[in-house]
Amino acid sequence: MNATTLILLPGLDGTGELFRPFIAAAPYGVATIPVAYPTHLGSYEEIEPEARDKLADNSVILAESFSGPLGVRLARDPRVRALILCNSFVSPPRWSRLRHLAIGPLFARRPPASLLRWLLVGNAAPPGLVEKVQEAIQRVPASVVARRLGQALSCDERSALSTLAKPVFYLRGLNDALVPSRSWREISSLRPEARIAEILGPHLLLQVEPEACWEAILAMLTKPGAD
Question: What is the 3-state secondary structure (H, E, C) of 189-203?
Answer without folding.
Answer: HHCCCCEEEEECCCC
